[in-house]
Design brief:
single chain, alpha/beta, seven-stranded mixed beta sheet, 16% strand, binds 6-O-phosphono-beta-D-fructofuranose
């Protein structure tokens, strides 16, 4: 078989572990040939690629980022995107393409699969919001980074009797905020799934200080919004790919809480540090398993599917199903977090 692999969308720790696993399983165990497209779908659309052999993937298991590069270019953004992809797949004699990506990438993968291309997807995102899989690799690493940051911020917050408003990633869902907030014992967790009431949030933080505590930690997902009319809030619109760019809810909340409470508040935007660096052991294992199973699915001719974790098993799920909805934080998970605040 000749297999093409690519990484697309925002990077995330564990991408290299998938690439390595695909190459090991395909080349060593099946005698396949593997090529890697550069910079996501862009590489497929421009036939920009390199051969991936065992030497090419040596030493990358624990490395963050992606050796192939990534971009947010999607075939659907180009008028002839699908036909260009089809042409290059035929010219290169590819029997399977393994795109590794999040929501946008998997939608593109589904589009190409519907057009008859031999696609086996692998889900990735630190946001953990792909509905068809219990967990995506990268999430565990991001939660670990955010939790360590929260632990560290507690000590400086206490020294200065401050409110720390820590903004974590999570455009549409609050999984990183929920898990890091629970792990670090944050005093309030604010997620996009549940628009917040600024009066309630101020009361929660205020009661802490009234009870004699010297600091408060608020974790807020970047996509969180106040209840309409609850406080001044303006979204900034879309970036060049149509993704929302946020007004900076961490900054806004810190200013609002400081003014309302008369306590110093500082915003801390963790940003891309959550996506950088070495993946945790959990993420390396999940990524490696996804890569292995993607190659197996390709050999079985199971196209138009993606790898998914269900319980402790890796299963194959139709791409169409995987891209139809996002996995949001359910109300009961949020309530569990509230009781430990
Ligand atoms: O989807 C993953 C993610 O890290 C989001 O949490 C975040 O909103 C977005 O990517 C940031 O994207 P970019 O790297 O394009 O700034």
């Amino acid at each position: 078989m000749r297999i093409g692999v690519l990484t697309s969308g925002g990077d995330c720790p564990g991408l290299n572990a998938v690439i390595r696993s695909v190459v090991h399983r395909a080349v060593v165990d099946h005698g396949d040939e593997v090529i890697g497209f550069h910079d996501g779908w862009k590489g497929l659309l421009e036939a920009d690629y390199r051969k991936l052999d065992l030497d090419a993937v040596a030493g990358i298991l624990a490395r963050g980022g992606t050796i192939l590069g990534s971009s947010r270019v999607q075939p659907a953004h180009l008028r002839d995107g699908v036909e260009r992809a089809r042409g290059h797949v035929a010219d290169l004699g590819l029997d399977a393409i393994i795109p590794i990506g999040g929501e946008g990438t998997l939608k593109a993968a589904n589009l190409l699969a519907q057009a008859g291309l031999p696609i086996v997807g692998v889900p990735k995102t630190i946001d953990n919001d792909i509905a068809s899989t219990d967990v995506t690799f990268g999430f565990d690493t991001a939660v670990g980074v955010a939790t360590e940051a929260l632990d560290r911020l507690k000590t400086t917050a206490e020294s200065h009797q401050r409110v720390m408003v820590v903004e974590v990633m999570g455009r549409h869902t609050g999984w990183i905020a929920l898990h890091s907030g629970m792990a670090a014992g944050a005093h309030a967790i604010v997620v996009p799934e549940r628009p917040f009431d600024i009066d309630e949030l101020t009361a929660i933080v205020g009661e802490r200080f009234s009870a004699g505590k010297r600091f408060a930690i608020v974790v807020v997902a970047e996509g969180a919004k106040p209840k309409p009319g609850s406080m001044a809030f303006e979204e900034r619109g879309k970036d060049i790919y149509g993704h929302e760019r946020f007004a900076g809810i961490g900054n806004l909340l810190a200013v609002e809480l400081e003014n309302r409470l008369g306590k110093e508040a500082r915003p801390v935007i963790l940003g891309h540090v959550q996506r950088g660096g070495t993946p945790t052991a959990y993420d390396r294992v999940l990524a490696t398993r996804f890569g292995w199973h993607a190659v197996e699915a390709a050999h079985r001719g199971e196209f138009g599917m993606l790898t998914a974790l269900r319980g402790t098993d890796i299963v194959m799920v139709p791409l169409a199903e995987a891209t139809s909805t996002l996995k949001t934080v359910p109300a009961e998970r949020y309530d569990e977090a509230q009781t430990v605040l």
